[in-house]
Amino acid sequence: MNTNEKFNIKNGPSKHVLIDAFKYAYDPAGIINLDFKVEISKGEYAKLDDFNIIAISHEDGSGESFNLSGWCRINGSYYSFTAYYSTKHREGVIEFKK
Question: For the chain, what are the domain ranges?
Fold first, then answer.
């Protein structure tokens, strides 16, 4: 996977699941599974494993748009990420860095 390239997020989690994932990011007993589909090319999606959100902030004050950062595993390799995500539309944009 190319780093520093932006990818579309489709069919992501709800706001409540997103906030819980952030809340329990470092709690081994509180694992929250996030279902993010990241479109790496037209119609092809990557599976994200061990997806941890370590920072979250409101993007526009709507309560539905967020800026995220954290790390995840893709095909066995770890990447940090930054993302914009809309819980209202359950889509956004994510950028990975190895």
Answer: 6-97
- 88: tokens are 């209202």
3-state secondary structure of 18: helix
d(CA 50, CA 62): 28
Q: Are 72 and 52 in contact (CB under 8 A)?
A: yes
Alpha helices in the chain (DSSP H): 15-23
What is this structure's pTM?
Answer: 0.83
Tell me how far the alpha carbon of residue 38 is from its chain's centroid. Answer: 9
The predicted structure's pLDDT at residue 45? 80
